[in-house]
Design brief:
Elements: E1 3-13, E2 20-27, E3 32-39, H1 40-50, H2 60-70, E4 74-84, E5 87-95, E6 100-106, H3 107-117, E7 121-124, H4 125-131, E8 133-134, H5 168-180, H6 184-199
Parallel strand pairs: 4-7
Antiparallel strand pairs: 1-2, 1-7, 2-3, 3-8, 4-5, 5-6
Helix pairs in contact: 1-3, 2-3, 5-6
Length: 200
Amino acid sequence: MKKIELDIVGLSYSQTQSGAYALVLGEINGRRRLPIIIGSFEAQAIAIEIEKMTPSRPLTHDLFKSLGQAFNISVQEIIIYNLVDGIFYAKLVCFDGKRTVEIDARTSDAIAVSVRFDCPIYTYEFILSTAGIVIEGNDFVYLENINETPEEKTAIPNASGSYNTLSEDELKSRLQQALAEEAYEKAAKIRDELNKRKSS
């Protein structure tokens, strides 16, 4: 099965889930985005490494990297290999110089490890076609300040209400609006409602 390489293009506070963050992965040389909801600890761990900040004491993912380096184990790639009931499944592909071992991991942890080992992130077409959203316009890169609390950020009202009461045309219109606002979590929920209607 052909792998598709992804890059981190966004990390922002979730407007609908308290204490959660939206991590957005983008298809290399493509316009599809894969939004994944992750916890605050993993979001901090990813942002700290991307920003090249040094915590006073090693975080768990830093410890994992130090342990791997001490025993000559490298992480060659991360693969987001499945999506079941809205949950993404990932694995680390590790190499110790003699053998390659695949280790199951939460997607958020796998990505926090990938930025430390500077290894590529991959997924498969069926995941991008199921859970990906297509953006229009030029590519962009952003990383919001995730040290802010929800109260310190200007919240975007979630005017979606119940999506199942909207027509398909209304859903498509809201999807385009959410994409234009870079509200990827909202866009993902609308996309899920549209997909649910197609399959029923």
